[in-house]
Amino acid sequence: MFEDNEEKEGRIQLYSRGNKTMSMIQPNEKIETVCRNCVFVAYEDMDDPQLQTGCQAGMIDIYRKQGATFKEYVDSYEKKFYGIVDRICPYWRTKEWAEKQPENEDLLLIARDEMTLRMEVVIYIPPSREVPFVDIGITVDSLARGKIKPTKLIFCDHHNIQPARFRKWITGRCAKMGWRAEHIRESDADFLRCLDLCMKRARERYVGVFTAGFYVPEDYISSLDVALHDRFERFIYLEPVDELNNGMTVQNVLHQFNRGNRESPLIEKLRQKTLEQS
Ligand code: SF4
């Protein structure tokens, strides 16, 4: 049954996420995506053209398969539509958004393009006798060849390279990727402490980690993008592929929320919380 949405209308809020806007109801602080004003909502029932039958982006079917909880609403115009509990539908777009797009373009493709995963990548430069510029170059160049490039490279300099020398070397090498360098001055810092220092100013949703010298596969970010935005899988942490922590990928907000690797490694805190919740 579709429930009366009259009262709840006051609680529909516009919620900004970067340059995109999501409409949601937040009863009891719960996230809920409401399909009513989405440009991709489908009303295709011949007998009842006010009844939401699905979604042009296929998201209703995906959420059903994932076992999401749906609410059914009816507004004062007798429109019947869904609310998807605990989900922020990444395809949610308004009519105003659609009107700003070029004519005759596929809106679903534009929306998908806007969702492309933005990631920062930490390149850890370990202590060593020689400055490992060759190794740093291997990792930077491999990331620059990626189908999706990191928005920013964060050089985690544990080698103590002179900042001016590093700046001179790196200038012009980061091809369309932003960069910044953190020169670690704590003599007793271990890898996890260095990582915490470097992630303090990270801004993107996910941060990947590689040690200088690792050749990053060109589909590293694009395969995560497909997993997140085409298969709608969810993850908070990816384990590294080797003992040099290559490929470790962390959800930034969880890293910040759990105080990074302070007190104990983040992965142990996450495992503990998972056990407590199961
Ligand atoms: S794209 Fe998302 S918000 Fe829009 S109709 Fe489909 S499920 Fe609802």
What does this structure look like?
It contains nine helices and 14 strands. By secondary structure, the protein is α/β, with parallel strands linked by helices. It folds into two domains: 3-95, no CATH class; 115-277, Spore Coat Polysaccharide Biosynthesis Protein SpsA, Chain A (Alpha-Beta Complex). Strands 11-10-9-12-14-13 form a six-stranded mixed β-sheet, sandwiched between helices. A four-stranded mixed β-sheet has the order 1-7-8-4, with no helix packed on it. Strand 7 and strand 8 (80-85) form a beta hairpin. The structure holds iron/sulfur cluster. Iron/sulfur cluster is lined by residues 33, 35, 38, 40-41, 55, 57, 59-60, 89, 91-92.
- Largest sheet entry: 6 strands, mixed
Counting DSSP H or I runs of 4 or more residues, the number of helices is: 9
Reading off the top of the CATH hierarchy, the class of the largest domain is best stated as Alpha Beta
Number of domains: 2
Strand content range: 15-25%
Bound small-molecule species: iron/sulfur cluster
The stretches of 5 or more residues where confidence is low (pLDDT under 50) are 1-28
CATH homolog superfamily of the largest domain: Spore Coat Polysaccharide Biosynthesis Protein SpsA, Chain A
How large is the radius of gyration? 23 Å
Strands, total number:
14
- Helix content percent band: 25-40%
In spatial order, strands of the major sheet run 11-10-9-12-14-13
Order of secondary-structure elements:
EEEEEEHEEHHEHEHEHEHEEHH
How much is the average pLDDT? 87
